[in-house]
Each structure stands twice: as C-alpha cells, then as structure tokens.
Amino acid sequence: MAMMTDTAPTSGHDTQGRGSHFLLHLIVALVLLALGGGYALTEILEFGKVQFNTNNAGIHWGMAIVTYDYFLLTSTGLAMVASLWHVFGMAEFAPIARRALWLAMAGLVGGVAVLFLELGAPLTALWATPLNMQFASPLFWKVLLVGAYAISLAIVLFGMINKPDAGRNPLMILVGGLALAVTLVAGLVYGMMAMRPVWFGGEIPVVFLIESFVGALAFTMFFSHLKNGFNHSNMRPDTRALFEGTLARMFAIAIALHFILHAGRAITGLWSNAEGMQVWGYMTAQPLFHIALWGCVALPFVLMVLPGTRSNGMMQIVAAALVMIGLLISRYEFIIGGQMVPMFKGTWAPELLSYSPSTGEWALLVLAVGLANTVYAFGAWKLGAEDRA
C-alpha cells in the first residue's frame, strides 16, 4: 500500500495510494464504531440509564460527560488552530488548516453523539433547552453556542468539499469566535458551581482554553503524521518546516502552560483546608494522577523543548499521543473528582463517594473514537479533507 504524502497526486498510482490509505483508516474506524456503538446501544436499549455507574448520592456526571467534554474541547481548539490561517493570515499554518477543520467536525460529531446517548430524552432536549429561556444558566448558553458553532463549521466545510484551492474563508471569523465562546462557556459551566469547591473558580475557563488548544495541537500533529504514514520525510517541505519550527515550539509552550495550571491547582487544593477540597489528597495519591502529570505532560514537554527531539518525527508522534491520553485522564479526574465530596451529608454519606465507569460507558468512548475517525476518514477519502487549503 502506497503511503500518503503531503504532495498532490501526480499519477493514477498516487491516487490509488490515497484511496487505499484513507479506505483502510475508514475500515478500522467503522470496526471501532460497530464494536463500541453496538455494545453501548445494546446496553442502553436493554437497561436505559441504569447501565451508567452514576448515582443519586452526588456522582451525576460520569464517563459519558467526560468523553463529550473531551471531544468538544478538542473540536473547538482545532477550529482555533485553523483560524490562525483563515482569520489571522499566518501563512505557515495554511498546510494544516483544512485538516484541523475536518478534525474539528469529526470531534464535534463524536462528542455530541455520546451526549445524546447519555441524555434520557435527547430529541426533547433539542427544543426544550433553547426554549426554557434559562438565561442565567451557562448550560443554556453552551447549548445555543454549540448549535451555532456546528452549523457555521458545517457551512465552511461544505464550501471546501473537493476544492483543494479554496483559500481563506471570511466566515471563519464567526467559526473561530464561536469556538472560543464555546470553550470559555464550557469552563463557566463548572467554574460557577460554588457548591462544588474543586470546580468553582474564575480560572476554570482559562484552564479549558489552554487544554483545548494543547489538545488541538496534539491531534493536528498526530493526524498529520498519520496521513504521511508516520514517516516524517514524506511531508511537504513547508509542512515539515512548520512541524520542526513554529508548531513544535507552540506545542511546547502550550504543554508548559497546561502543566503549570494542572500542578498549581493540585498544590492549591492540597494546601487548602476548605470543606470539599480534601478530595485533592485522594486524587494526588492515585497512580492515574501521576501518569497524567509526569508521563503525559512533563515527558511530552521535555520531548518538545529539546532541539534534538523537537524536530524528530517519531518523538512528535509520541508526544502528541501522550498529550491526547493525558488530557482524557485530566478531564476524567476533573469531572469525577469534583463530584466525590457529597453535597448533603448524613450518617449515610461516606467522606468521599466512589465511581468507576461501567463497560457500557467505556463502550461509549470507543463509539466516540470510532465515529469521529469515521467522519474524518470518509472526508479525507471522498471529500478532499486532506487536500491542502
């Protein structure tokens, strides 16, 4: 099978290589979608929301919400990365702008699909949420903004289908602005909850913004290498120059900011004696916390800050994959950890609540990965998602 490169096809053989590359990606994605979606749908249809390991004691948002927020924030970050070219005219980012936008749509579809399956009545939510006029709730605005973001992003991508020479799109000002707004309001959904001390704080929207951007850079880097058969030398010269220069340095800076915020919140939580903050002692004692902090944040930062590894394609792939995994762990710790302290205590309530995802909830994560990759692979195979913008 011929490996896909950043260069445009110049022969029938190259075109066949393009098709086989993305067709294989699509087949693998469809297998994941069938496995995860089939199991998750079977569980939901048979047991309903009982198959989720959430409870009425305080753990109301489980792995499905973790998955939804993870994919949504990745999507908005990717739209912001694409805006570096489309809105700000940074020509260096032109080779990856189209890829970032298609990945943004793929992530959005995967995340929203999981949210719909988590809701008890998803079709009712489509009209009831905007019509309930709960203007004081950040969730109300988040739903409206996500809807507007999805529509505007779809319009932009529709105009790019099989148009490899499509240039900067002025509508991206709206898409980029909505992506920024969705990210910040998603942070406010948690940051405004005074009854949840681990979540409450004005810095949460900033945390979400940085995590969104660093995740977008990781996905862009990983899927760009995937497109080139994980062979750094297959990249076009301008794309390789971006990856060895500006993008790698920007990735290192974003990882550093993520590390500072992640470690800073943990240190503050451990220092505080406020009611509800005791959960930080539990979370920081878990191996998962240190895997995320040191293995999936600190290590990728080292790889991206050292000149010898920063420009190495394989090290970029490793760093990107670790960051993608680390952000999922961080999102899990943030959402679940924030609910572990019971809000209403009595003789029945333990000091900390416990939660672990059910097999059905893990299946929803597989479904999201499969669906997102299906959307992206099909776009790359048939709709010109991988042609240079």
From TrEMBL:
<keyword id="KW-1003">Cell membrane</keyword>
<feature type="transmembrane region" description="Helical">
    <location>
        <begin position="204"/>
        <end position="226"/>
    </location>
</feature>
<feature type="transmembrane region" description="Helical">
    <location>
        <begin position="61"/>
        <end position="88"/>
    </location>
</feature>
<dbReference type="Pfam" id="PF03916">
    <property type="entry name" value="NrfD"/>
</dbReference>
<keyword id="KW-0812">Transmembrane</keyword>
<keyword id="KW-0472">Membrane</keyword>
<feature type="transmembrane region" description="Helical">
    <location>
        <begin position="21"/>
        <end position="41"/>
    </location>
</feature>
<feature type="transmembrane region" description="Helical">
    <location>
        <begin position="100"/>
        <end position="119"/>
    </location>
</feature>
<feature type="transmembrane region" description="Helical">
    <location>
        <begin position="287"/>
        <end position="306"/>
    </location>
</feature>
<dbReference type="InterPro" id="IPR052049">
    <property type="entry name" value="Electron_transfer_protein"/>
</dbReference>
<comment type="similarity">
    <text>Belongs to the NrfD family.</text>
</comment>
<feature type="transmembrane region" description="Helical">
    <location>
        <begin position="171"/>
        <end position="192"/>
    </location>
</feature>
<keyword id="KW-1133">Transmembrane helix</keyword>
<protein>
    <submittedName>
        <fullName>Polysulfide reductase</fullName>
    </submittedName>
</protein>
<dbReference type="InterPro" id="IPR005614">
    <property type="entry name" value="NrfD-like"/>
</dbReference>
<feature type="transmembrane region" description="Helical">
    <location>
        <begin position="318"/>
        <end position="342"/>
    </location>
</feature>
<feature type="transmembrane region" description="Helical">
    <location>
        <begin position="139"/>
        <end position="159"/>
    </location>
</feature>
<feature type="transmembrane region" description="Helical">
    <location>
        <begin position="247"/>
        <end position="267"/>
    </location>
</feature>
<feature type="transmembrane region" description="Helical">
    <location>
        <begin position="362"/>
        <end position="381"/>
    </location>
</feature>
